[in-house]
Amino acid sequence: LKPPTQGAVAALHMVHCFHLAGFPKGLISCVTGKGSEIGDFLTMHPSINCISFTGGDTGIAISKKAGMIPLQMELGGKDACIILEDADLDLAAANIVKGGFSYSGQRCTAVKVALVMESVADTLVEKVKAKVAKLTVGAPEDDCDITPVVTESSANFIEGLVMDAKQKAATFCQEYKREGNLIWPLLLDNVRPDMRIAWEEPFGPVLPVIRINSVEEGIHHCNASNFGLQGCVFTRDINKAILISDAMETGT
């Protein structure tokens, strides 16, 4: 196991637990270090016979170097949530908040963009806003819903996406607030495709809403993304659900 630099402590604790549970010595090892320094050594070593990698564009570089070794890749996501007119909006709102803001949005499989049919968008946004208002913000020790993101550079990146959306007149459903690495949850309505937040993965508690006028428009936006990790669709019509999910070019 080669953990990310920012997540090394948790990974070392986990491997220690394996050893305490009685795993034979040498069966599981944890190797820490910068991917830029030890990544190639690990992925190209002749003793390695399978690679599972979680992360972003680095996965493409690994796939080019790994040769014939089996790969299991879980790369970045701009996971789209498509909400149709016939959706259960309370259910959709609950899952958008859970999917978009748990772990402060720091999940590859988080909901990263809500594509909502115009006719139900006002209602859905109000329901999501009400749920976001109930999220607690603070320290992880206090068991808060929203806690600081992993690094200052991550917080700066998220802020860059927010400021771009502000400059291009997105609707802020809450006031943007930040203290150090702690960013308060933010829902952005009326996001357009010319905004960075429509395409880039914030990996933080900021969720864009794009209003669509047809299912085709939603599928097109989902598939135009460079990412293809995960997607979801809310409708009461099982046939539409299957057709749309089949049309979405996502892993799950």
From TrEMBL:
Enzyme Commission number: 1.2.1.9
Transmembrane segments: none
Top-rank EC class of the record's enzyme: oxidoreductase
Reaction(s) catalysed (UniProt annotation): D-glyceraldehyde 3-phosphate + NADP(+) + H2O = (2R)-3-phosphoglycerate + NADPH + 2 H(+)
Domain Aldehyde dehydrogenase as annotated: residue spans: 1-252
UniProt KW keywords: Oxidoreductase
The organism's place on the tree of life at top rank: Eukaryota
Pfam families: Aldedh
GO MF terms, alphabetically ordered: glyceraldehyde-3-phosphate dehydrogenase (NADP+) (non-phosphorylating) activity; lactaldehyde dehydrogenase (NAD+) activity
Active site: 74
Recorded family membership: Belongs to the aldehyde dehydrogenase family.
Official protein name in the record: NADP-dependent glyceraldehyde-3-phosphate dehydrogenase
Organism of origin: Citrus maxima (Pomelo)
